[in-house]
Structures are given as C-alpha cells and as structure tokens.
C-alpha cells in the first residue's frame, strides 16, 4: 500500500506547532481537511475548536477553505489564497503573537482544566506525565500515543 500523507487513519496530522506563513495550527488543519475530503480523517475533525481559532483570527470561512483545498492546491498556494481572501489580514507581529500564544496556551477555566485532565487521564500511560502543560503538548502526546508510540 502506498503512503498517503492525508490518511489520518494510519498516522497523525502534522503537529499544531508546525507553522505555515508563521501560523501555527494551519498545516494541521490542512491535513485534516485533505483527509476529510478523501474520507480518511479517522478520529480527526476539520473545523474543530482548534481550527476555529485560526479561521476566526484571519476571517476565513471553513467551507470556503475546504472548497480551495478540494482543488488540490498545495500548502503555499493555500497560504496565498488565505492571505488574499482573509477578512482580517494580519501583520507579521500579529501572526507571531497569535502563534506564540497558542503554543503556550493552557486551560484557563476550571471547565477547560477538567477537560484536559479527562483527556490525559483516559490514557493510562499519559496519566502520570507531569510535563503536559499546554493544549499543544496534549495534542502531540495524544497523536503519538494514538499510533502506537510510547508515552
């Protein structure tokens, strides 16, 4: 069987830390969208709450982006499309601030802390990990563990 980079039933999407045009989240979101278009998203969801942070920040509609992704455009082409069609064009320092904040973002409310604890404790191997502090830490650990990696 040939390797399909967008078959998320076989491997995880890119880490939310990976950047495109300075934006975190975007490459992962594109992976999930491409996988969904192929019917290979597995447990991953395009347009989830993490994706919405990016979509709202730049002012792009998820359905419009999905239409562009369906045209088979590469990451660079999609970045240029986003930059051209964003209702909220962003300056480099805004993009850097957005990305840096998300890389460090931790649960800010008791409900969000409980949600993170619930997700982490659902995996016996990760429940004892004390180095999982941010949402990105949790996603990276969960992606790794979901495909057989040791946590």
Brief sketch in words of this structure:
The protein is globular, with a radius of gyration of 16 Å. It has helices at residues 26-37, 49-58, 62-69, 75-85, 92-104, 110-121, 124-127, 135-146.
Can you offer a commentary on this structure?
The protein contains eight helices and no strands. The chain has two domains: 1-104, no CATH class; 107-151, no CATH class. The chain is mostly helical.
Q: How far is the first residue's CA from the last residue's CA? A: 28 Å
Helix content: 40-55%
Task: Give the class from helix and strand content and strand pairing.
Answer: mainly alpha
Strand content: under 5%
* Main pleated-sheet profile: none
Instruction: Give the count of structural domains.
Output: 2
Q: What does the average pLDDT come to?
A: 89
Radius of gyration: 16 Å
Output the number of helix runs.
8
Uncertain spans: none
Number of E-state strands: 0
Global geometry: globular
Strand and helix layout:
Layout: H1 26-37, H2 49-58, H3 62-69, H4 75-85, H5 92-104, H6 110-121, H7 124-127, H8 135-146
